[in-house]
Specification:
Elements: H1 3-11, H2 18-30, E1 55-58, H3 67-70, H4 78-89, E2 110-113, H5 127-144, E3 150-154, H6 155-168, E4 185-188, E5 217-222, H7 227-231, H8 237-250
Parallel strand pairs: 1-2, 1-3, 3-5
Antiparallel strand pairs: 4-5
Helix pairs in contact: 1-5, 4-8, 5-6
Length: 268
Amino acid sequence: MDGLSELDRRITECRACPRLVEWREEVARTKRAAFADWDYWGRPVPGFGPHDAALLIVGLAPAAHGANRTGRMFTGDRSGDFLFPALYDVGLASRPTAESADDGLTLYGTRITSPVHCAPPANKPTTQERDTCRAWLVSELKLLAPTLRAVVVLGGFGWQAAFPAFAAAGWQVPKPRPAFGHGAHVRLAGGSVQGPEQSPEQSPEQSPEQGLEQEPLDVFGCFHVSQRNTFTGRLTPGMLREVLRTAALAAGLHPNGPIELAAPGADS
């Protein structure tokens, strides 16, 4: 079992945040009427995508009846219904839909993760829960470091969570910390990979050998694919595709063909 497989397995067993454990398991028991016949996942949701990804997408947390039900990031909810068509359009996903963990969806050179791995009440993790979960993200970044070249961070919460993790994983984060905004772009200089990070339950994780030099990391900001943003037009499919395509090119992934953006004011 390689390092990321072991990390994913250990994430699914985490019980470090009592409020999140109680909520995710309650939702899995009571279910939503539309999914009454589902056997909910009801555990922390690990990252999804290849272990040699060049591009990482960082979200917020699993949705109660989305990833908390299906066991895969952004799968089975409205946010995923917005994200995966865009990934497909720019050549980063094998299909435009994500319905279940066994639907055959494959990501190309791209991995999806989140700073909080358990579904939180009202989709709002506390800062303490975010900080407790950070060790998992740091370990994931260290394991991806040999191939990782770009990151797309969805939303201000993810942005605040990601930069301390970048620093802990060895990249050089400027001070003051760069401000979040849609289309924001920051290049982080590489540094030396640090030693293994401690998990939230104080168990060491595997990581690349200490002392390896990291490549620079291009970090891009994007409005979150939440219904609040997508239903109001704050984030359109064209806006999302543009950020994904720019990040994919920075990562060296060469997505499929040029994206034809809609005319100004249109929801492409």
